[in-house]
Write a structure and sequence with these properties.
four-stranded mixed sheet; alpha/beta; single chain; 2,3-Dihydroxybiphenyl 1,2-Dioxygenase, domain 1; 2 helices
Length: 136
């Protein structure tokens, strides 16, 4: 597991997990439902080698509110990919699954191929891969 793991609060964790599997090829390691089984208290996913935790909103226990159109998430998640072509393919896969593209894939001045998306649950995702070094 990574030393730092983002913990995403969403409006419907079961749907979010299904989306992340389709959009980002997420692998589900664990899922724990609350006692009555209606909400997910904790899910452990791996997305392109990085850990992400997901949960439903639990305001009654002081938990975070899920993002929405009026209250977008203040945090973005970066998926660091090995090759520039991977940015394009993951972007296409995620937008086909229902993510909203906010910046199409492009080569950036900092030497990376980059794109940005917002998932249907209000979380921002950035796709980044190093460009080949230029001779000279």
């Amino acid at each position: 597991m990574n030393a730092i793991v983002p913990y995403l609060t969403v409006s419907n964790a079961a749907e979010a997990i299904a989306f992340y599997k389709t959009a980002f090829d997420a692998k589900e390691n664990a899922r724990m439902a609350e006692e009555n089984g209606t909400r997910i208290m904790h899910a452990d996913l791996v997305i392109h080698g990085g850990s992400v935790f997901v949960m439903d909103e639990f305001l009654e226990y002081g938990g975070a509110k899920h993002p929405n159109a009026e209250r977008p998430s203040p945090v973005g998640i970066v998926i660091q990919l090995p090759a520039p072509k991977d940015v394009d393919s993951v972007y296409r896969q995620a937008t086909a699954a229902g993510a909203k593209g906010t910046q199409e894939p492009a080569d950036m001045f900092w030497g990376a191929r980059y794109a940005a998306l917002t998932d249907p649950f209000g979380h921002s995702w950035m796709l980044n891969a190093p460009l080949p070094k230029q001779a000279g």
